[in-house]
Amino acid sequence: MSDIGSGDEGVSGQKYNAPNMDGSGDFEQNDPSGQQAEQELATKMLQIQSKRFYLDVKQNRRGRFIKVAEIGADGRRSQIFLALSTAAEFRDHLSTFSDYYSSLGPPNPESVPDDGKLKSEMMIKDNRRYYLDLKENARGRFLRVSQTISRGGPRSQIAIPAQGMIEFRDALTDLLEEFGTNDGGFKGELPEGRHMKVDNKNFYFDIGQNNRGIYMRISEVKSNFRTAITVPEKCWTRFRDILTDYCDKMKKSSDPSNSADNNLQSSSNSLK
User: Fold this and answer.
1) CB crowding 250-267: b at 16 or more within 10 Å, else e
2) Which strands sit side by side in the sheet containing 128-137, from one edge to the other?
3) Partners of residue 60 on adjacent β-strands
4) Which regions in the chain score pLDDT beneath 70?
5) Helix (H/G/I), strand (E/B), else coil: 8
């Protein structure tokens, strides 16, 4: 039996060089002219059974990351994005999953869980979560890697045939040995994103991190419109103080009793 995931375990995509449409967020950014302001530093290609995998180390104004693209036999594409530190954690998980896979006996349909999952792990990086599931179906065993973002954007995922996990790990190791695993900045878990709805607008507050540090992205979204600002962590306190000052002033100006006091004070002054 071939150890390869079913065709529907990956997200349908376009050809490898097609424009990215999977909500990669902070990793890939356009410059003002509309062109991708990024540089490809290294790439590796793996042929694992009927699939090709491209591991590309890229760099843009936000730092370095690894894009993993899966190309199926029919040319369909799926891809995920990994910070260098996340790629290092993923590499270590690949060793663990491979050891577990090696300890399994021949596939036995009667012993497979209803959801097909044999072993699962999760990774967290900034506002992203990665779900690793070693699964089994009628075509064999495979590792499904799903990437999600906290504000409910599209899920992207790839499926690595179980027999190719070690080869995939070794390719990642080569790239990380050359480019390192240090993202810099905050090492803990960043706060979850928040959402607020006002009339027909949605506001999203997302905390992220890049090579310049931690930031808050505030996005205003309507049905046919989206805009966002980015606030560096170093000025959050000042940003809050300005908002608080405006809130206090608006509260005072809209308070009827305060208005009456002002009128009385004005009348008193005019009689002097």
Assistant:
1) eeeeeeeeeeeeeeeeee
2) 117-125, 128-137, 140-149, 156-161
3) 38, 63
4) 1-37, 112, 150-153, 183-188, 210-212, 223-224, 256-272
5) helix
The model's pLDDT over 165-191, given as tens digits with 9 standing for 90+, comes to 999 999 999 999 999 987 655 556 778
Could you tell me which of 145, 142, 141 has the C-alpha nearest to residue 66? 145
**Which has the closest alpha carbon to 215: 245, 250, 239?**
239
Report d(CA 158, CA 94) in Å as an integer.
Answer: 14
Q: Is 118 helix (H, G, I), strand (E, B) or coil?
A: strand
Task: Please enumerate in sequence order all residues whose Cβ is within 8 A of that of 225, keeping only pairs 6 or more positions apart, or say none.
Answer: none
Tokens representing residue 82 in the block: 């990994």
Q: Is the pTM of this model over 0.85?
A: no
Which candidate, 216, 217, 231, 210, places its Cα nearest to that of 65? Answer: 210
The residue type at 107:
P
Handedness of CA 194, 196, 62, 170 (dihedral sign): positive
- Structure tokens that stand for 241 in this block: 């103080």
Burial of 66 (0-12, 13-18, 19+ CB in 10 A): buried
